[in-house]
Amino acid sequence: MSLRADAPPAAPARVHRFSRAERWIHRTTAVLMGVCVVTASFLYVPELARLVGRRELVVRVHEWAGLALPAPVLAGLASRAFRADLGRLNRFGPHDRRWLRAALRRDRRRASRPAGKFNAGQKVYASWIAGATLVMLGTGLLMWFTHLTPLVWRTSATFVHDWLALTVGIVLAGHVGMALADPEARRGMRTGSVSEEWAEREHPLWRR
Fold first, then answer.
1. How many CB atoms lie under 10 A from the CB of residue 115?
2. pLDDT at res. 149
């Protein structure tokens, strides 16, 4: 028997997708967002609120986690790879419009959903969550520093903050659900690389 026949199969080719800095930004942001969501749940859901003995502490944790939420992204601007990916997320092309039309028609054929490094759904999500975070931060500050603004401003800020928080929770649940359905995408965010086969299948325009 030849040595060639006994040799182990070659490992699948891997493609670098995210730098260490980008993975750190994602994880830190996810932790802060998770703290905000969990503490908000204990503050606003009656069944959970009854389980909290120190409500004031939960409020403070929620406030400081929300205030720190933009910090990982701001720190990440020092990373060239992160800035490059922000540029990709901020650009829409004809293939992105085609992807969105296919998604609206529930057309799941790969040929109908061309994508670069990020597909159109990821770009819409990133833009929406960034805007929502800024609105949540602004309205949260109005609620925190009550002596700085008129009552009508604080009332409006509370209304927007509460309802947008509910929307953010729903959108985040969808984001987590999609991540759970794609193990290779999770591996890319965890290790920084993905299989070449996955890259060609899910993001065929990425490396062209």
1. 20
2. 81
Where would I find the beta strands (DSSP E) of the chain? Answer: 14-16, 193-195
In contact, 143 and 154? CB cutoff 8 Å: yes
Closest CA to 24 of 75, 99, 90, 60: 75
pTM of the model: 0.86
Phi, psi of 193 (to 5 degrees): -135, 155
Mean pLDDT along residues 13-27: 95
pLDDT category of residue 1 using cuts at 50, 70 and 90: very low
The distance between the two most distant Cα atoms of the chain, rounded to a whole number of Å, is: 86
Task: Please choose, from the candidates 146, 152, 97, the residue with its C-alpha nearest in 3D space to the C-alpha of residue 120.
Answer: 97
Q: What is the per-residue pLDDT across 140-186, written as a single tens digit (0 to 9) for each?
A: 999 888 888 888 988 999 999 999 999 999 999 999 999 999 999 99
Q: Compute the distance between CA of residue 122 and CA of residue 101 in angstroms, rounded to an integer.
A: 14
Helix, coil or strand: residue 53? coil
Nearest to 203 by CA among 103, 122, 118: 118
| Pair of tokens at residue 107 | 């057309």
- Residues 92 and 123: beta-carbon distance below 8 Å: yes
pLDDT of residue 8: 60
